[in-house]
């Protein structure tokens, strides 16, 4: 059987303890050994965050999954905003910490991921809903 879609759910809580890439002075990312399935076409990371290991994993996929066509990074818990798909009136509420982390994750995407996305890969970044989970300063 060929694995074509890879979904990774990042457990919130686990990575909160991990080193965030932001504020880390050495920006060299580890190269991960091993290889991904050749047929992988679609990668979705739900709960994408600024933790170094998650960013490394993402870069690894971009560099090694030659068949990759679509990469989705969701900084919320789900693939889509629920209030915008019409099924619910309001999105799942996120705590202030989670929203802060999501914004850090977006920064990391800009700094470390965007430059590595080949033209053949469609990158989709899902941000917290600006209506339901806006960051209040
Ligand atoms: Zn919403």
Which term fits the overall shape?
A: globular
Bound molecules: zinc ion
Helix content: 10-25%
- Counting DSSP H or I runs of 4 or more residues, the number of helices is 2
Main sheet overview:
4 strands, parallel
Sheet with most strands: strand arrangement: 1-2-3-4
Q: What value does the average pLDDT take?
A: 81
Order of helices and strands: EEHEHE
Low-pLDDT ranges: none
What structural class do the secondary elements suggest?
A: alpha/beta
Strand residues, percent: 5-15%
The value of Rg in angstroms is: 15 Å
Distance between the termini: 49 Å
Count of distinct strands: 4
What does this structure look like?
Residues 1-130 form the At1g61320/AtMIF1 LRR domain. InterPro entries: At1g61320/At1g61330-like, LRR_At1g61320_AtMIF1. This is At1g61320/AtMIF1 LRR domain-containing protein. It holds the Pfam family LRR_At1g61320_AtMIF1. The longest helix has 18 residues, at 96-113. Helix content is 23%, strand content 15%. It has helices at residues 52-64, 96-113, and strands at residues 5-9, 42-46, 70-74, 122-126. The chain is of the alpha/beta class and 137 residues long. The protein has a four-stranded parallel β-sheet, with no helix packed on it. The structure holds zinc ion. Residues 81, 83, 90-91, 129, 131-132 line the site of zinc ion (ZN).
């Amino acid at each position: 059987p060929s694995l074509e879609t890879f979904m990774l759910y990042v457990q919130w809580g686990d990575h909160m303890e991990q080193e965030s890439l932001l504020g880390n002075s050495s920006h060299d990312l580890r190269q991960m050994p091993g290889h991904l399935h050749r047929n992988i076409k679609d990668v979705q990371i739900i709960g994408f965050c600024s933790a170094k290991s998650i960013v490394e994993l993402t870069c690894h996929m971009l560099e090694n999954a030659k068949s990759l066509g679509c990469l989705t990074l969701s900084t919320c818990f789900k693939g889509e905003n629920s209030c915008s798909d019409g099924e619910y009136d309001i999105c799942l509420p996120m705590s202030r910490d989670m929203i802060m982390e999501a914004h850090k994750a977006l920064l990391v995407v800009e700094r470390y991921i965007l430059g590595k996305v080949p033209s053949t890969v469609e990158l989709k970044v899902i941000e917290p809903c600006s209506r339901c989970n806006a960051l209040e300063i």
